[in-house]
Amino acid sequence: MKVIHYDNHFNGNEWFVIISIVVGLLAVLVIPKRFTKKTSTIYLLTGVFFGFFFDHTLSVIPVSYYDLNDTSLFELTDFLSHVMYSSYSYFFFYLYDYLKVKARNSPLYILIWTFISVGIEKISAILGVYHYKHGYTIFYSFVIYLIVHSIWVALYYVIERHGEKEY
């Protein structure tokens, strides 16, 4: 069984989360606007929601496949790591719209973003944001990212079709 060595100091994992939030949100503010404020908010919150949902589904008892950051307890940095996902999701939708990805090319787009996400998670794990347990590997995250990104593409089309309608 792999022994997890938690690091209880303010260092790599906290800096990664903070820098990701600052750089990501600054980039969101700087790039040209493509969406209404309402749609932008949905796209930002999508990352937070899915990150929170999957992290708390997979990292709590009874499954507890990984811990976030410095302890197995929920901390402020854990919450901030969910906020960190907001800019990632926004750029997923932004580039999908900007590149005018056709539905038939969506699987390739999803696959590319899945590899990007796995790469970012790998860096996060090296820096101590994720501590895998009970046989969990990044391969499982790959499958989860495929599912999440597929849902995001479907959400994009729902919002494009129905998002700004007044009922």
TrEMBL record:
Keyword field: Membrane, Transmembrane, Transmembrane helix
**What sections of the protein cross the membrane?**
15-31, 43-67, 79-96, 108-132, 138-159
Name listed for the protein in its UniProt record: Uncharacterized protein
